[in-house]
Design a protein that fits this description.
Layout: H1 2-26, H2 29-34, H3 40-69, H4 78-100, H5 106-123, H6 137-142, H7 146-157, H8 167-187
Helix pairs in contact: 1-3, 1-4, 1-5, 1-7, 3-4, 4-7, 4-8, 7-8
């Protein structure tokens, strides 16, 4: 259940942001935004805020279906799950903004998003343990941003851990947020 929740959040952010931005860029909407009185930071804040709200709603729906339809049990405080979701979502939104810098068309943006999402989905341990991977792959899995999010969600939901016990994973996620934000700010382009 936690794997599906994280997968939905990641997929939504990494694919929808580049598709939206490339559409806006192709239709010259981004250029038009630059000449309006709207400060550009407010545009980005609204895009990010809307996607964070969507991520919370999406996580709530997935969790509710898992619990009420399929009988899943959450042993920890579900409120703590919703504290982890926005942090993970920010990482994937930033990755989406990074991909949007190179996507010329919405179709290319979708393809690029899938090229990032699919390997991360399998190598981060969304559906199965990464301990069975051969050679160096378990260590590479630890370097992916989805891995600490999944680990933190599972610690809270399955092990019943309080959120403060997931501080190592949250610290890694915060590092990913900071790093991807810097890269996204440097590579983003309006035309």
């Amino acid at each position: 259940l936690m794997g599906l929740m994280a997968l939905g959040i990641m997929t939504s952010a990494i694919i929808s942001i580049p598709v939206c931005i490339s559409t806006y860029r192709n239709n010259s909407i981004l250029k038009r935004l630059l000449v309006t009185p709207l400060p550009i930071w407010k545009y980005f804040a609204s895009e990010i805020s809307a996607h964070l709200v969507l991520a919370m709603v999406q996580a709530g729906i997935i969790l509710a279906v898992g619990v009420f339809v399929f009988g899943a049990r959450v042993h920890g405080n579900p409120v703590w799950l919703f504290a982890i979701v926005p942090l993970g979502s920010l990482v994937f939104l930033n990755i989406g903004f990074i991909l949007s810098a190179w996507a010329r068309t919405p179709a290319a943006a979708s393809g690029m998003g899938n090229a990032v999402v699919l390997p991360m989905m399998f190598f981060a341990g969304t559906f199965f343990s990464t301990n069975t991977f051969p050679w160096i792959f378990p260590y590479l899995a630890e370097a992916l941003p989805l891995t600490p999010m999944l680990s933190a969600l599972r610690q809270v939901a399955i092990d019943g851990a309080p959120i403060w016990e997931t501080w190592p994973q949250l610290t890694v996620l915060a590092g990913w947020v900071a790093g991807t934000a810097v890269v996204a700010a440097k590579v983003f382009r309006f035309s």
